[in-house]
Write a structure and sequence with these properties.
366 residues, seven-stranded parallel β-sheet, Rossmann fold
Length: 366
């Protein structure tokens, strides 16, 4: 009796998902969180990004394939805008080829230069797309791209007002932020409490960095860890042995976990990282963020009693040190902020976005 012929293909091939976007950590890191969840659900994931974005380093480091495209923003003089438009059209053609070769069941746009051309390419090829908006106020590109997507997912409730039909899922956050205690972090980092952590996100924050360098350069009865970002690091110095100025850290979750107080800009990723470890914070929104989204991001937390707000024009060497020391002296107030901050974390967001992508990919397959 002849045996049935065996197929070389698996009867249930792994679903394929393409993630597009990046530029900054605020886009790339949530995308990688979703990618990790997808990988744990046995999906194959590839990325489309920009050659100049932070994803060009982070994505290969996380062992995901990256298709890096030459892209720039649409701002600038007419010549620069014309060049950006040309690159955008070329990127759409490149994304079409990538999608045809890889054959994803769904595409996720996360914002950044590479997100829009991938969404457009997927739409023209009939591949369903989802969009994740990290901020309270969506940028122009995401508002336009949202019209082409099957579903738009948002982090903040306020974004629902700008993106009709969107669904709130929260912010995909690295699991490391949820699993480290203050005591273990202090031991691992060799820090003496109390600890203040100052950071401005992946791009740094010059005004905040300069104010912090001046505020804590003299003797302090507490430890200050200032993560400056690569751009500002060379401009900063301190004479205080309890003031560490670091260019960049891969394990920011340890420093946040070790902190008694955090001073931070108000990028969405940074805010939800602080919420994941449940730490008291003074939020200093970047005043020139598109659509004022950092102020709106911060107010989501401050209006719920989870953090304190300090406007950028209020920040001086003297005022920053005064605000920090007032909160360090208020143990009860800090504990209240910590509890409310932790309650706003969204630990299931990565898995939630991943499941939605797989559901859409499954619908198309059937």
């Amino acid at each position: 009796m002849n045996e049935p012929e065996r197929s070389n293909q698996s009867p249930n091939p792994a679903p394929r998902i393409l993630i597009a976007g990046g530029g900054t950590g605020g886009h790339a890191i949530p995308a990688l969180c979703v990618a990790s969840s997808l990988r744990s659900m046995n999906a194959n994931v590839e990325f489309v990004g920009s050659v100049s974005g932070i994803e060009s380093t982070l994505v290969p480091k996380a062992d995901f394939p990256l298709h890096a495209l030459p892209l720039t923003g649409l701002a600038g003089n007419p010549i620069a805008r014309a060049r950006a438009a040309t690159l955008f059209l070329k990127a759409i053609r490149s994304c079409k080829r990538i999608i045809q070769r890889f054959g994803p069941g769904a595409v996720l746009g996360v914002g950044g230069y590479a997100s829009a051309p991938a969404v457009v390419a997927a739409r023209t090829l009939g591949v369903p797309t989802l969009l994740h908006e990290q901020n309270s106020v969506p940028g122009r590109v995401n508002r336009l791209a949202g019209r082409l997507t099957r579903e738009t997912l948002v982090t903040f409730p306020a974004a629902l007002e700008h993106l009709p039909g969107a669904v709130r899922v929260g912010m995909p956050t690295r699991p490391e932020f949820f699993g480290v205690s203050r005591e273990k972090a202090l031991e691992d980092l060799g820090l003496e409490p109390p600890v203040v952590v100052v950071f401005g996100g992946s791009g740094g924050a010059l005004k905040l960095n300069l104010a912090a360098a001046g505020a804590f350069a003299g003797t302090t009865p507490y430890t200050v860890v200032q993560v400056s970002g690569r751009r500002d690091f060379a401009r900063l110095s301190t004479q205080n042995p309890r003031h560490r100025i670091l260019e960049y850290v891969d394990d920011i979750w340890r420093y946040l976990a070790a902190a008694d107080l955090v001073v931070s800009r108000a990028g969405a990723g940074s805010l939800f990282d602080i919420a994941a470890v449940g730490r008291a914070a003074i939020l200093v929104p970047f005043p020139f963020a598109t659509g004022g989204h950092q102020l709106h991001n911060a107010r989501y937390f401050t209006e719920r009693g989870a953090a304190e707000l300090m406007m950028d024009d209020e920040v001086t060497v003297e005022s920053l040190r005064r605000r920090v020391e007032r909160l360090l002296d208020d143990d009860e107030g800090r504990e209240e902020l910590e509890g409310r901050m932790a309650a706003l974390a969204t630990p299931d967001a990565s898995d939630g976005v991943a499941r939605r992508l797989l559901a859409v990919a499954g619908e198309e397959k059937n």
